[in-house]
Design brief:
The chain is mainly β. It has a domain of about 80 residues: Beta Barrel (OB fold (Dihydrolipoamide Acetyltransferase, E2P)), CATH 2.40.50. About 5% of the residues lie in helices and about 40% in strands. The strands form 4 sheets. Strands 6-5-4-7-10 form a 5-stranded antiparallel sheet. A 3-stranded antiparallel sheet has the order 1-2-3, with no helix packed on it. Strands 8-9 form a two-stranded antiparallel sheet. Strand 1 and strand 2 form a beta hairpin.
Amino acid sequence: MLGRHHFGHYTRQGEAALIELADFERVEMRVGRVLDAEPFPEARKPAFKLRIDFGPFGTRRSSAQLTAHYQPQDLIGTLVVAVTNFPPRQIGPVRSEVLVLGVPDASGAVVLLRPTEDVPLGGRVF
């Protein structure tokens, strides 16, 4: 069965089409530290507004649907992984400059992807 997910094309139910290493290398995934997190009541789906420090790559803003597992105060100081080279998106009044990465739990709520050790800010995922 063929299907399509909003983040890519699939060859069979849940199985992504193969890509070349060069395709993966075009996506910049970097480590940042959450500086600020606050509720985003204007969002269509429950979300937080985040300000994230990527070290030498600067501070960026994001909107992230993390409300099921996290409280804003618990996110501050947390290391996260984000795609930093997508074009910015306007989400209501927020200009989201990076895509914070996570995976769905069994009920579909987002669980953050994050380093388990302290690593340099701006470090690139490879």
